[in-house]
Amino acid sequence: MCLKAEAQPDIKHSIYFKDKKCVYDGDPPPNFDLKHWYWNIEAHSSGNFYAIRPVLIGTGANTQYDVLLYKLNAQFDTLWSKQIGGSEDDWIFSIKELPSGNLVLTGTTSSNDGDVPYGHTYSAKEIWVIKVDTSGNILDGNTFGGSNGSDMRSTILSTDGYLYLCGETLANDYDFAHPSFGGLDNDVWAAKLDTNLNIVWIRVFSGNFSEAGFSIEEVTPNMFIVGISSPGTNSEMLGNQAKGIFDVLVYCIDSTKNTIWAKRLGSSGLNDVRKCLVDPIEKKIYIVGNSQYGDLDVQYQTADSSMNVWVVKLDTLGNIVNSKSYGNKEVGYGTEEMSIVDAIWHNGHVWVTAFSRGGGADMDPRTGTTSNNNTWIGMIDTQANLVGKYTIGNVGDDTPIDFFSKNGELFLHSYTVSLNNNMSCTGKLISTYILNLGVAPLGLTTYNKKDGFELYPNPNSGQLFVQIKDSKNGATIKYKIVNQVGKTCLKGQYNQNLEEQQIDISSLAPGSYILHIQSNKQQYSKQFLKL
């Protein structure tokens, strides 16, 4: 049965930006697509942050990628950067802090020299794990893989101090030897390493088509979730449970790699998984990805689009508790979609960010052409209901990169390329930036008309409307807007000749403010949020 609705969900919270830091603000530099945003940012217990990004070395046919490791202060200013790599392509995708304070970097390498002297003897990309201290000095390293090449997608540090990784491989030899179906296609792998980077075990999940392994997450120290996207029809891919063209497989394994349970989920179309998340209190499991249709395991769908963000809540036995998808409305262009980029568990909610093409339904009106991306942020509660949303839209492309958190604060790393770049710090064409996200109930200050003073809409992004019921025509109204530390940010006056007056607040930075009004010897003060 298809359960689908065109009505807007009951959005209960406002997402706004408490602060913004521009990492890069300027004109298009060479290799902008890789060099001018971080691939991963990790908060450190010292109060600093560590980040990585690739750097292109050499010219012409003699080019390869190395890694730049950055140390950032609490304001995201660069303290230092160090280059890591060998003579071939080297990539780092993840940073994790060990209990010792040292860092583990995980990615892939095609080198066996430079900073990878312990690399493979065969010619193929393999998994690369290195340990560095807080000054960026390499302490240890390891590689593993097989011929034909492998990729790394996800790394976690378990509560009992082990590293768990997952990804895909084209190999069926060396470290990834496993029964296969004879074709050269991707199989998903998971691995457990100790903090000395020694391999404890490796498990390969073998399918008869190409699979993708995007995420691994801990439920308990003896229970882990591996998220797999697969069109496979063989028994290990649970082919007898197939739903659509491409499905989501959820493998629950123990700390010794044995299967506890496995489920296959999906609609009758395309489905995939990008992130497995776990509620640390209730231990419920959230599978976050994309789904094309609102049928079968997709219990609710807002919009009829080519792809929607899909959130599935499972209990610890793998049973579906809630399953809902959100997107923009199909309006005939054929390019409408909402494709997930990242998700994070934060303060009792699943936060999702996606790039979106389209408009309506769960997205603000389309900005730019039909082929341009807008950045969408969604906040989803424990019943898989969308309770907060925000769309970053420019005429050009807006694309999210990833979430990270520190001390209860949530951050989104994103970028914009647009001629009307309203996310720029200096008005430039290209901006990569870090947003500190805030949340407040919609109607944070829903005031009663009986007090003689109203302001709306609240929260607000541009024009604030003010009504003062007890003021006479021609009366002089003085106002000032102050921020949370009491600094006056705007002030002015007007003559009361209309019941409703308008104050332009578009120049204010996102955050919480107080509007002070003086009229007829009466004073009023009310709080509002600038988005």
Strand and helix layout:
Layout: E1 13-26, H1 32-35, E2 40-43, E3 49-57, E4 64-72, E5 78-84, E6 90-97, E7 103-109, E8 126-132, E9 138-144, E10 150-157, E11 163-169, E12 187-193, E13 199-205, E14 212-220, E15 223-230, E16 247-253, E17 259-265, E18 271-278, E19 285-291, E20 300-301, E21 308-314, E22 320-326, E23 337-346, E24 349-357, E25 374-380, E26 386-392, E27 397-406, E28 409-417, E29 430-441, E30 453-456, E31 463-468, E32 475-482, E33 488-496, E34 500-504, E35 511-519, E36 522-530
Parallel strand pairs: 1-26, 20-22
Antiparallel strand pairs: 1-29, 2-3, 3-4, 4-5, 6-7, 7-8, 8-9, 10-11, 11-12, 12-13, 14-15, 15-16, 16-17, 18-19, 19-21, 21-22, 23-24, 24-25, 25-26, 27-28, 28-29, 30-31, 31-34, 32-33, 32-35, 35-36
Q: Helix count?
A: 1
Extended strand count = 36
**Uncertain residue ranges:** 1-7, 444-450
Report the end-to-end length measured between terminal Cα atoms.
40 Å
- Give the overall shape: globular
Notes on the structure:
By secondary structure, this protein is mainly beta. Among the domains are: 37-218 and 253-259; 449-530, Sandwich (Immunoglobulin-like), CATH 2.60.40.3080. Helices cover 1% and strands 52% of the residues. It has one helix and 36 strands. It has one helix at 32-35; strands at residues 13-26, 40-43, 49-57, 64-72, 78-84, 90-97, 103-109, 126-132, 138-144, 150-157, 163-169, 187-193, 199-205, 212-220, 223-230, 247-253, 259-265, 271-278, 285-291, 300-301, 308-314, 320-326, 337-346, 349-357, 374-380, 386-392, 397-406, 409-417, 430-441, 453-456, 463-468, 475-482, 488-496, 500-504, 511-519, 522-530. Strands 23-24-25-26-1-29-28-27 form an eight-stranded mixed β-sheet, with no helix packed on it. Strands 18-19-21-22-20 form a five-stranded mixed β-sheet, with no helix packed on it. The radius of gyration is 25 Å and the shape is globular. The two termini are 40 Å apart.
